[in-house]
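For the sake of transparency, this paper describes our internal protein records without simplification. An entry from our holdings is shown next, in its original layout:
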Amino acid sequence: MAKAKTSFVCQSCGSVYTRWQGKCDDCGGWNTIEQEAAAVSGAPKGLSAKKGSNVRLVDLNAPEKEVPRTLCGMPEFDRALGGGLVPGSAILVGGDPGIGKSTILLQAMGNLAKAGKHCIYFSGEEATAQVQMRASRLGLSDAPLKLGAENSLRNILTTLDEGPPPDVVVIDSIQTIFADHIDSAPGTVSQVRVCAHELIGYAKRRGTVMLIVGHVTKDGQIAGPRVLEHMVDTVLYFEGDRGHQFRILRAVKNRFGDTGEIGVFEMTGEGLAEVANPSELFLSDRDTLEPGSAVFAGVEGSRPVLVEIQALVAQTTAANPRRAVVGWDSGRLAMVLAVLDARAGLGLSGCDVYLNVAGGLKISEPAADLAVAAALISSVAQRPVANECILFGEISLSGDIRSVSQTEARLKEAQKLGFSSAIMPKGKTQGKSGMRETTVDRVSDLVALFIEPDA
């Protein structure tokens, strides 16, 4: 019999080493390498002489079959999935502790069970009584949803193989499940990889939708090997701040829909309530006209979203001024500040800068550059941006304002919410929206709208 080999595996990236060391050479993590015993295997290194079966090949122009989808009764959840659940798909849901992952999945499973679907919820972190208490609070006590509290992968697969295959299965969470033939603790790279592979294989064979909950690291990435995100069909991140009632379900990978699509929810005492018009909700508290505030017309997936960007620029005597950012990329802010200094001469290098995206939304598209710059300039000049004005556009290092995609959708959403003017780069759709459009070519043009040049 072959001996079990001992290896040292990085718990962040999955890199394997022959001996322990303090720092992982691949991901740079410290104290992430742990000893693991590989499974005993006496299989030969090469394939045997046994002949395999032929693979069925099709042409590119073969008629495409429409993928059937199952709606879970939560339009925002279905939107993030690209239109509903696809049979045989594996979906990974990640998010910070307490953000609402288990709540939204329990609500979705309860709706599906009420609609006649065979659904099973396996919890590796809570007892069935705890899940029943949450279901009672959510008003789902009468839903014919089957619950199970189990950590063993073998017991879970044995239960699923009895009787007809279920329509939807929830595993909460993959870091708590263990395979007894792997000599390592639950949550390690080996356990997560093997358990996910077996569960996804079952979903593909039986046509079951497999919803897998994943823990996240302190950096916001799903814990375990990166290959976990490659194995599944869809990766959803549940974002939000505990200080805000809003929650964003964002698709960062989707083989059956648009990547970047979002669903917006509001945390209430009775669970997660859907937000049909997130723009109106994000701007609901914007009553007073104050300097340092600008409304950005963005696009998340296929949905235009209007959100308020707040900036505060304050003089400081410190040698290293503060740069505090919430909801936006700090590197992008540094670039915009450098362009405003070099191309417009604002002299912000000696000021503390605070930037916040209201409502807890995280923005990643470069089209927010113009709105951020306007908020910063407004704070410096102490002149507020007009209440009925929106902004969008990308700023280049040369100080030019570049056009962005989906201009018509941005303007249409703004007009629907009562905005009448827009500051934007030049584009082909200029003058077609019915709004009062102010085009800017360079950041100096934007500065001139707020700061009058010296006589």
Observations:
- The chain has three domains: 6-37, 75-276, 281-448.
- The mean pLDDT is 87.
- Residues 281-448 form a domain with the Ribosomal Protein S5; domain 2 fold (CATH 3.30.230.10).
- Residues 287 and 387 are 9 Å apart (CA to CA).
